[in-house]
């Protein structure tokens, strides 16, 4: 085991989410060797480099370093396309935070480049590899809810509050569908496979506003919301499953979320697909709703699991689960909803993907089981 090759990775973008990734790369996943980090903010880059005991390097030096196999793209969504494109042309594998790009055409181009360069390209969300969605997959695959027929997915937040701290949330690529709704759609894609058709209505409520935060340097300055903040959509999957998808980012601060799957013999309710180990409940005919035990490991903060699983895929020469094809398809689902609303027609998806294989169950891990615990990461191999 000590002689097994690890995939050497460099993190590009040392913002808030980078700590979760780098902590897990250092302490949790044996398939990855954290080799370097980079950020335009040199103070932040040097702080992370010192914290994790790795070199701080420029993006250009990382691209030309032959010892670095994979780039972890944690930059702002607006530059995902340019960073990933440069890394692929430099001969690096790339794993990107969601989404692949801000437009469907850019994402298609990245997938084509990855194919031409014969490099792996993976993309978040990777929460579908966690215990929650894998348990839902277990319930569905084992027929516990009978034949799944439909689902309801809904999410509300207050992006006026979030957006005054993170202005990109009001720009193309940062709206609620792209920022958080994609966790729901990636989970559903992993459970039901590709979609065939989407249709939607969207609107932008009160798009011209004024910054209210007195601690903001832009206090009382006007700003414009460039994207929708309410959308209701319908989705038809190729396997016949029908779904409703709703987002509202102009609601109250308290997040309200729904992901409920309806089958011929039961109903599954998933508390939060944006988390790895949130509660799942099951309701069977003529019975009360009960909490269903999680069947898989990766129950806490596991950001980077998609990159770790991709590293194992590279080592063994097999497809990765958080694939560019599924990521492209999820992005096209959102693109199709926007296009449907703008054109008042059904949108028929052009992309497709192979539904990722479920992770094997039973590899739970956990300190409470001590040395007898089956190692979680074994499920990724």
UniProtKB/TrEMBL annotation:
One of its GO terms (molecular function) is nucleotide binding. Residues 7-123 form the Gfo/Idh/MocA-like oxidoreductase N-terminal domain. Gene3D superfamilies: Dihydrodipicolinate Reductase, domain 2, NAD(P)-binding Rossmann-like Domain. It holds the Pfam family GFO_IDH_MocA_C3. Signal peptide: none annotated. InterPro entries: Gfo/Idh/MocA-like_OxRdtase_N (IPR000683), Gfo/Idh/MocA_Oxidoreductases (IPR051450), GFO_IDH_MocA-like_dom (IPR055170), NAD(P)-bd_dom_sf (IPR036291). Residues 133-268 form the GFO/IDH/MocA-like oxidoreductase domain. This is Gfo/Idh/MocA family oxidoreductase. The lineage of its organism: Bacteria, Bacillati, Bacillota, Clostridia, Lachnospirales.
């Amino acid at each position: 085991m000590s002689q097994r090759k690890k995939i050497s990775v460099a993190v590009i973008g040392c913002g808030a989410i980078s700590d979760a990734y780098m902590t897990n790369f250092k302490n949790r996943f044996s398939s990855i060797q954290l080799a370097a980090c980079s950020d335009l903010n040199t103070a932040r880059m040097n702080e992370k480099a010192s914290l994790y005991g790795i070199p701080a390097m420029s993006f250009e030096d990382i691209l030309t370093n032959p010892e670095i196999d994979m780039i972890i793209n944690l930059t702002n969504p607006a530059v995902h396309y340019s960073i990933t494109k440069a890394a692929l042309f430099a001969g690096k594998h790339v794993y990107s935070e969601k989404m692949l790009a801000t437009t469907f055409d850019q994402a298609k181009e990245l997938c084509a480049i990855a194919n031409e360069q014969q490099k792996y390209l993976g993309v978040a969300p990777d929460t579908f590899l966690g215990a929650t969605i894998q348990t839902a997959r277990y319930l569905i695959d084992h027929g516990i809810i009978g034949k799944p027929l439909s689902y309801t997915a809904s999410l509300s937040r207050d992006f006026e509050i979030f957006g005054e701290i993170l202005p990109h949330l009001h720009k193309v690529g940062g709206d609620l569908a792209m920022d958080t709704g994609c966790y729901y759609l990636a989970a559903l894609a992993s459970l039901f496979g590709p979609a065939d058709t989407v249709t939607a209505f969207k609107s932008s409520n009160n798009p011209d506003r004024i910054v209210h935060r007195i601690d903001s340097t832009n206090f009382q300055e006007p700003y414009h919301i460039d994207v929708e903040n309410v959308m209701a959509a319908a989705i038809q999957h190729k396997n016949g499953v029908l779904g409703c998808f709703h987002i509202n980012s102009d609601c109250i601060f308290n997040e309200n979320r729904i992901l409920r799957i309806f089958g011929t013999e039961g109903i599954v309710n998933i508390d939060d697909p944006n988390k790895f180990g949130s509660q799942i409940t099951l309701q069977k005919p003529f019975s009360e709703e009960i909490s269903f035990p999680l069947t898989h490991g990766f129950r806490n903060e596991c950001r980077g699991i998609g990159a770790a699983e991709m590293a194992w895929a590279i080592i063994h020469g097999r497809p990765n689960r958080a694939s560019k094809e599924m990521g492209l398809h999820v992005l096209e689902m959102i693109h199709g909803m926007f296009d449907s609303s703008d054109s008042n027609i059904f949108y028929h998806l052009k992309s497709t993907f192979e539904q990722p294989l479920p992770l094997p169950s039973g590899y739970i891990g956990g300190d409470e089981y001590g040395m007898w615990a089956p190692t979680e990461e074994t499920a990724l191999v």
